[in-house]
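Budget justification aside, the reviewers requested a transparent look at the raw inputs and outputs of the sequence design task funded under Objective 1. We therefore reproduce one unedited record. The lines immediately below are the structure tokens for a 207-residue chain.
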């Protein structure tokens, strides 16, 4: 292909394109229009950034790599999520099949908790906060304070007589810990209580 910016007059171009000799063609000076054309082409070439030719970017290949990386990332995340969910499910199954029977622990004196009152204690370990609620003179209930949705600490609402989670407004019945409303799907773990004269003892956890 003949470069368009070369200053050959049209007849000479035609001859060169046909493969003919230029010997018989008398030399002629480029016309002013052709000169302008050449000048414009040269100035365009001078303005083009060198990096385009020195460091060309293969956009197509670049997109391919990004897509591949993205798919690998998605696969990795999906695998991690699947593994995490399976482990949580297995742990829950294990805990249901093997109820916890920790050592009994004295958690309160009867006189310390008035009717309608609440007392915080930890059971079975110091990392397990629980709430003891006195519903009547002779009736006590206790639950883990960790909400079964995302483990926010639940509180007892005396006015509503229910356990309430302030994070996403999960509500649990104070009588048995069942879910009344909100995102939680499982009841609050219940602490098994035993009364020994004037003492309240925790003797196990019912999940
Ligand atoms: S953490 Fe309790 S409702 Fe979400």
């Amino acid at each position: 292909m003949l470069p368009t910016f070369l200053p050959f007059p049209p007849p000479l171009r035609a001859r060169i394109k046909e493969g003919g000799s230029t010997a018989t063609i008398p030399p002629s000076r480029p016309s002013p229009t052709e000169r302008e054309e050449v000048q414009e082409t040269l100035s365009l070439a001078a303005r083009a950034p060198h990096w385009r030719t020195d460091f060309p970017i293969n956009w197509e290949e670049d997109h391919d790599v990004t897509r591949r990386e993205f798919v690998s990332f998605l696969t990795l995340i999906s695998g991690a999520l699947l593994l995490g969910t399976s482990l949580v499910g297995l742990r829950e199954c294990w805990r249901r099949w093997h109820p916890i029977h920790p050592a009994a622990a004295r958690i309160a004196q009867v006189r310390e908790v008035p009717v309608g009152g609440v007392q915080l204690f930890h059971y079975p370990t110091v990392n397990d906060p629980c709430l003891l609620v006195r519903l009547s003179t002779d009736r006590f209930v206790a639950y883990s304070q960790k909400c079964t949705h995302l483990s926010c600490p639940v509180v007892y609402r005396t006015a509503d007589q229910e356990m309430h989670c302030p994070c996403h407004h999960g509500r649990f019945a104070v009588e048995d810990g069942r879910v009344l409303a909100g995102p939680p799907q499982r009841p609050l773990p219940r602490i098994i209580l035993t009364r020994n004269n004037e003492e309240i003892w925790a003797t196990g956890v019912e999940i």
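The longest helix spans residues 59-97. The two ends are 83 Å apart (CA to CA). Computational costs for records of this kind are itemized in the attached budget.
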